[in-house]
Amino acid sequence: MSTPERAGAVGLVLARPRRLLSAEPFFMEFLGGIEERLAAHGMWVMLHLVSTAEEEAAAHRRWAEREMVDVVIVVNPTVDDPRPELLRELGLPFVVAGAPEGAGLPGVLSDHGTPIRKAVERLISLGHRRIARVSGPTPLLHTRARTDALIAACAEAGLPAPVTAEGDYSHEAGERLTAELLSAAQPPTAILYDNDVMAVGGLEAARSLGVDVPSRLSLVAWDDSTRCRLVSPELSAMTVDVHRYGTQVADAALEADRGVPVTERWFPASHFTARGSTGPAPAE
Prior knowledge:
Helices cover 42% and strands 19% of the residues. The chain is an alpha/beta fold. It has two domains: 9-110 and 240-270, Response regulator (Rossmann fold, 3-Layer(aba) Sandwich), CATH 3.40.50; 113-239, 3-Layer(aba) Sandwich (Rossmann fold), CATH 3.40.50. The longest helix is centred in the last third of the chain and has 17 residues, at 242-258. The mean pLDDT is 93.
């Protein structure tokens, strides 16, 4: 009996504006980890960039029809995400990068609550009571998990309810939303950002408004990167091994490709890296 021909490829669709992908180092490190592990097994990544969820679904259907990939990696899971059901219907094995705990989806699980609590604890230790956040898009599960964790952490500490402004991971969003937050009657003394690009935009907004960082405003980026260390002051950040995350997702994809149960793995633990953008809260 002949062995079915295999594509030797793992499919990954990114529904993301191309300008953001080129500006954000997270996905480059993530893909580097995936490609490194797959190469050791004679496989490669078929990366496809699209702008909409409909285009992503069309790519999955095309891959299945033409047998172009052996397994698919799903990124950025959303509320009521239709992709797992579609991939099951298409008969394409898949894993989810950042799968929520308890969802029963194969892939790498993410804990977004612990890093938020770590960041809030650090800011509280510096005397901050008005904490805000510039988030990613709200349909994303990890955005909602971070929002819930921030609200809970502030409530447990007896702090005012945090204000969250929804962004799109772009520099422009970070700059604009930070300016809006700082124009409030009682502006925050600390702002968390869901990525490094928006945090850099926030730093520039504060500078243009004459708000000194960190004596009047502390800033924390969610993902650490070289970008965080090239600005002045250097940005404090939640640091995580993104390359290792990529290798974990690749290992899960390799298991799904072999048809064996996917081992439960967790997103690598993050830690707070203090730099020049965080300091004691200003005196009221």
